[in-house]
Amino acid sequence: MSTAPRLTALDALHRSLGATMTDFAGWDMPLRYASERDEHNAVRTKAGLFDLSHMGEITLTGPEAVKALDYALVGNISTVGVGRARYTHICQEDGGIVDDLIVYRLGETEYMVVANASNAQVVLDALTERAAGFDTEVRDDRDAYALIAVQGPESPGILASLTDADLDGLKYYAGLPGTVAGVPALIARTGYTGEDGFELFVAPEHAVELWQALTKAGEGVGLVPAGLSCRDTLRLEAGMPLYGHELTTALTPFDAGLGRVVKFEKEGDFVGRAALEAAAEKAATKAPRKLVGLIAEGRRVPRAGFPVTFGGEVIGEVTSGAPSPTLGKPIAMAYVDAEHAAPGASGVGVDIRGTHEPYEVVALPFYKRQK
Amino acid sequence: MSTPENLRYTKEHEWLSDVVDGVATVGITEFAANALGDVVYAQLPAVGDTVTEGETCGELESTKSVSDLYSPVSGEIVEANQDVVDDPALVNTAPFEGGWLFKVRISEEPKDVLSAEEYTKLTAGN
Q1: Coiled coil where (chain A) (predicted)?
Q2: Is the ipTM above a cut-off of 0.85?
Q3: What is the pLDDT of residues A100-158, one digit of tens each?
Q4: Which of A39, A179, A211, B50 fits as disulfide partner to A226, beta carbons 3.0 to 4.6 Å?
Q5: How far is A322 from chain B (nearest CA, A)?
Q6: Whether A224 and A336 share a structural domain
């Protein structure tokens, strides 16, 4: 494509902070501001501030919005209370994953679906088509929101200093409308880092003001701006899948070890039900490959697409890999033949540019925060 | 960004020091270090290895990618920087000083090196 990358409402601010920018799903996004390892560690121990405005928001309203979502998605959206959120998938008729999503129930009959930037159009098209028979309106709200996340153990204190909203009452995977630094915002306790944190959906014209207020509020407690590079290592340590890596249309949620998001018990048909029932049975009886964690014994870093090997045979493929700042070693997620997927399986390695590097098979996640 | 006047440079973003008693020091530039991001692993040539100008002689791995290291000059390796092997972040924090990579006994004058001014022009606009 020759189209110019899209810029977020915070673009000038990122440049003034000296960010290294990168093209991500057609958006020009901050990759890092200084050291991505320092940014990563700040989120783990203090707090980081992210621009996630590339994420795609789609709103469904109307009396049958929930029925439409129950039909279009694999989750049981009927059980989501007002002010709560749910992680779910949207699948093809054949069970392949179109995208992973968070659905926020904003009101009795209003839901916001947040899709990955790279899939936002596909998800919008699918939801529009799948909702056609229901009394609901599907609205493209991608341009209606900027999204700023503050993540890390200091984030509740930082946010509390800027809002009267009841953050103590706001549980993980909940969201409520409020005011932050004088700006109307949807305050969600969600994230993609493995830490406590918040995602703030605001009108783009308020994004700079909110970012600056958060920066000031976090000054004394070590808040730093954080880019997509550390977001990737944070989510990898937390064992969270990334679309295009651990999740693709060639895989079902069961293949990805996320069968729990598929709710067969819900009422009515949903797109992919028949194929997913078959996939569930296959995963339970003869899973070909499983998603595992790998920890390097050496220092060379596995990358997406590298073969996982055993005794010279290819037994899997790395889907994401990076040096882990928290573990101090290279780590990876990989799909590995079931017989080699048990934690502690011996003799497993990654072929890194022609050399078999030994790796330990572990259960995911690599990192779990102390609560 | 700093580009010391007393060094010579390559298009592959290595630098080469003045030659003292036939030996020159090699590293990567601040421009290259910034582009790589945090270096987490450095595979350097071993003492005694023969390196050839313009050919790969090691690799530098960062959070996002791995990059080949090219020798800016032909010769024999007389020292590899163990400090960088132990703490690869030195490449980011002090690319022209403590983050040097190896020392090489030069067998012939390099043909394809740039002055500081030429190198600055090469990287301008990036």
Answers
A1: none
A2: no
A3: 999 999 999 999 999 999 999 999 999 999 999 999 999 999 999 999 999 999 999 99
A4: A39
A5: 6
A6: no
Smallest CA–CA distance from A22 into chain B, residue: B35
Contacts of A36 in chain B (CB under 8 A): 37-38, 63
Q: Give me the domain span that covers residue A79.
A: 56-126+252-285
DSSP annotation string for chain B: ----TT-EE-TTSEEE---BTTEEEEEE-HHHHHHH-SEEEEE-PPTT-EE-TTSEEEEEEESS-EEEEE-SSEEEEEEE-HHHHH-TTHHHH-TTTTT--EEEEEEE--SS-B-HHHHHHHHTT-
Which pLDDT tens digit goes with each residue over A280-332? Answer: 999 988 888 999 999 998 889 999 999 999 999 999 999 999 999 999 999 99
What's the pLDDT tens digit per position in A259-284? 999 999 998 999 999 999 999 999 98
Look at domain B9-106 and name its CATH class: mainly beta
A329: closest chain B residue by CA: B40
**Partner residue facing B41 (CB), from A31, A301, A303:** A301
| A29 and A77 inside one domain | no
